[in-house]
Structure formats: C-alpha cells, structure tokens
Automatic annotation (TrEMBL):
InterPro entries: Ig-like_fold (IPR013783), PKD_dom (IPR000601). This is PKD domain-containing protein. One of its GO terms (biological process) is carbohydrate metabolic process. Residues 58-100 form the PKD domain. Transmembrane segments: none annotated. The lineage of its organism: Bacteria, Bacillati, Actinomycetota, Actinomycetes, Propionibacteriales.
C-alpha cells in the first residue's frame, strides 16, 4: 500500500507570507501559513477498490536564511501568529515549505488502516525581501 500511496499525485506545497507584497522588516515577526486540503482518493489495486483519506501531517518551513523549522501546525493568518521568523539582515530570501502527507486506507468499504510512512512534497520558493524601516517624524497642527 505504501508504494501505491507514493505514486498518487499530490498537490504542491503552497503558503502565504504576511506582511503581503513580498517585503518584510528586519527584526519583525514575519508570519507564514498554509491551508492544506484534506484529500480523498479512490484507486484500484489488484482489482480491489481502495479508498484513501490523505491529510497533511507535518510541515518544514525554510526561511531562506539558513534557518528552518518543522511543525505539525499549518500556521494561521494574522493576528494568530503561529509560525513566524525574524530576519536579522536585509536582503532577498527564497522561502519555501515542504509538506508531508500521510494516509489511511480501506479495501472494499472495510475498516480504515494507516498507510505505513508518508510522502513529502517539496514546495516552490517564494521570494521575500527584508528591508529596514526608516523612522520619520510627522508634525501635527501648528
């Protein structure tokens, strides 16, 4: 079953970076999250109908500066900052996320059983630029 699971096409890993627009600030919490789908598939294996329930089980976030983190959480949009990273230097970074998928299967409508192992899909990189903010005094009234 594990070999059949590895041959099923799974969606590429996609994620969102906040703040949007491909820019973040140095020493600022940059937020990362994804919205993974749960996937149901039916295949035929040795003449039998096999149902699969496929779900994301873990994520490895690559921040492009040599740092990465692995988690079982997909992160969340602002204001729930679950997966964040602080860039300490200005520059351009290629961020990415790998998703590991696991599955349960059943044959002919029988009991669900886990598929041994998982399948990791490497995500495409998303460009991010870390910049420094310049403080500006603004006068009011006068």
């Amino acid at each position: 079953m594990a070999i059949a699971f590895q041959r099923i096409p799974l969606p590429p890993s996609t994620f969102t970076v906040q703040p949007p627009g491909g820019k973040t600030l140095v020493n600022f919490d940059t937020n990362f999250f994804t919205r993974p789908p749960n996937l149901d598939r039916t295949i035929r294996l040795l003449g039998q109908r096999v149902d699969l329930r496929i779900r994301a089980s873990s994520y490895t976030w690559h921040f492009g500066d040599g740092e990465s983190t692995a988690t079982d959480k997909p992160g969340a949009p602002y204001p729930r900052l679950l997966i964040t990273h602080n860039y300490v230097r200005t520059g351009r970074y290629a961020t990415s996320m790998d998703t590991t998928w696991v599955a349960d299967y059943r044959v002919g409508g029988g009991n669900w059983q886990p598929v041994p192992g998982g399948v990791t899909i490497t995500g495409s990189s998303v460009g991010l630029r870390a910049i420094e903010a310049s403080p500006t005094l603004v006068g009011y009234g006068g």
